[in-house]
Structures are given as structure tokens and as C-alpha cells.
């Protein structure tokens, strides 16, 4: 067979070509780990060496995904880890659409972090969005790009992960009773407040918080901070 056969696999019992969602989730988890390592290297060690290699791999991987996912390195690696699990088939076209969006995100990251190294807060935000999408797919089997497929395509997606594309009634085990709803609300508030407190109330007690603050500061603010540090060191030497 050629490198560009019909997209997806033909599986008996499915009216459209499909892909194995278990492989996709495993691949998303692998890429998320790579992105996380790149982010922590940049923040903690202030080096982009790992990120340059990872983004190059990420861009090439997603290009291959939208051409022929059979040969995408991350999907092959994901298959290795889940080869003994029962496949979960999902529609191939919405996955291709989602991976196309991933490739669109990857191209500017590749240019600004590999070809012409110009990191700034906006580019870091794009990386965080990419990590967010990878995390949701790997942890919750929620393909946000697949959901966007229905907004742009006339033909609606079928065979989505977890059967969310098909109309069905939730089982009792999937519903929330009043107490569970209250716990969910308070848990969400606690997570949001905790995140806010970490980045604000802890000030610069951790290297991570300090680097994140510096990353999002303007040049003028960085110069002012450096001036204050120099003055403080000068005063210490004087006394």
C-alpha cells in the first residue's frame, strides 16, 4: 500500500473509517510529558535546547498524522504501550481535523522557537494551550478539536470517544446528586483559588514563580527590577 491510502482504517461494523482512540490518547500523553519537560527546562534552567528538539518532533509528527497516521512516530509509540488493550474506534475525519489544528499551532511555534528564536509571553501561552489540549485528550479522552469539527463541517462527526456524538441518556452512575454538585462547586473554587494563591501570595519563594513572573513582565519592568536589585546589592556593599 502507498504512503497516502484512504484516511483511517476500514473496520467491519463501522460506516466510516476509524482510528484507535487508545493509541491517540497514549500518544497525547507522551507528547504532554515532552511539552512539560520542555516548559520546566525553559522556566527552571532557562534553556530551550530540549524544546527545540521536541517542537521539531511535534511539528513533523502532526504533519505525518494529517497525511497518514499509520506512520506517525508518537502514534506508533502509543500503539506499543496499548497493543494488548481492546481498541476503541473513533471516526477518523474528526481526528484528522483536530490534528490539523494541532499542526497549525505547531508551525508558528516551530518558526519562533527553532528557526528564529524569539520567545515571548504570547508564544509561551500558545505552548500552554497546546499542553492543555494534550492533557484533556490523554486524561479525559476529550478531543476539543474533534468537537470543533461539527462547527465547521456540514457532515457531523460520528463514533466520538465515549460515544458523546450519539444522543443517549446518562446512566444513574454518571449523574450528580445535590451533595455531589455542592462538592464539585467547592472543589472547583478551591482549585482556582489555590492556583491564584500560588502565583500571587507566595511571591518569589519558588524559582518557578519568580521565572513565570519575569517571563510575563515587560522590558521596562524587567529593567526596573534589575535596577532595584543592583541598588540593593550596592547598599549592602556600602554597609
UniProtKB/TrEMBL annotation:
* One Pfam family in the UniProt entry: DUF4395
Q: Which UniProt keywords apply?
A: Membrane, Transmembrane, Transmembrane helix
Indicate the transmembrane segments per the record. Answer: 26-44, 97-115, 121-146, 182-199
Domain DUF4395 as annotated: residue spans: 20-154
Determine the domain of life of the protein's source: Bacteria
Quote the protein name from its UniProt record: DUF4395 domain-containing protein
Species per Swiss-Prot/TrEMBL record: Sulfurimonas marina
